[in-house]
Amino acid sequence: MRTTDGITLVELLVTVSVASILATVAVPSLYSVINNNRLTTVTNTLLSSFYLTRSEAIKRNTRVTMAANNGNWKNGWVVFVDGNANAVVDPDEQIIQQHEAIRGEILIQGNRHVSRYISYLSSGFNRTLSGALQLGTISVCDGSGNSDGTHARALRVNYGGRWWVSRQPAHINCN
């Protein structure tokens, strides 16, 4: 009786064929998981900075602002003590946190009063530079242009300065 210490060419071809079929099925699913993780990470990073801005305003008993770099949230942002309430970091104002630009195909855009900055008073309420109530939505979208909950998130701020995340397409603007 003869024994062999290897595999035949047919066995190898069948194994490679099955592996390639499984990879073809798994790769799109893996892309979806990676994309979802990117959106979640950017959303949570923004939320963390918003909460930091609010808590620092209360703790320091003064206005603290989080401003988008060059007016675009994707370029990163800075949290600072805004002593003169102009939403611009001046040389004499203390920087609390800086965040670098967001890499990849992620789009971040705010509507109306939150397109460039969010500012909190010492009371913890968010207000525009003129003192008006600062409500709005910041959309975080992947590069697909879809505004559904799979491809985008909406960060919404209420009248009390608190944020929440929505996946409802009506709240998201990826255009």
Question: How would you sum up this structure, described in words?
Answer:
The protein is an alpha+beta fold and 175 residues long. The chain has a single domain, classed as minor pseudopilin epsh fold, CATH 3.55.40.10. It contains 1 helix and 8 strands. The protein has one helix at 9-60, and strands at residues 64-68, 77-81, 95-99, 107-110, 117-120, 136-141, 152-157, 163-166. A 4-stranded antiparallel sheet has the order 3-2-1-5, with helices on one face. The longest helix is centred in the first third of the chain and has 52 residues, at 9-60. The mean pLDDT is 88.
Key terms:
minor pseudopilin epsh fold; 4-stranded antiparallel beta sheet; 1 helix; elongated
Total beta strands: 8
Helix content: 25-40%
Q: Count the helices. How many?
A: 1
End-to-end C-alpha gap: 72 Å
Question: What is the architecture at the second tier of CATH?
Answer: 3-Layer(bab) Sandwich
And the CATH topology?
minor pseudopilin epsh fold
User: What would you call the shape?
Assistant: elongated
Our Rg estimate from Cα atoms comes to 24 Å
Number of domains: 1
What does the main sheet amount to? Answer: 4 strands, antiparallel
Order of helices and strands: HEEEEEEEE
CATH class: Alpha Beta
According to CATH, the homologous superfamily is minor pseudopilin epsh domain
Poorly predicted spans: none
Structural class, from secondary structure content? alpha+beta
Strand order of the largest sheet: 3-2-1-5
**Average pLDDT:** 88
- What is the chains' assembly state? single chain
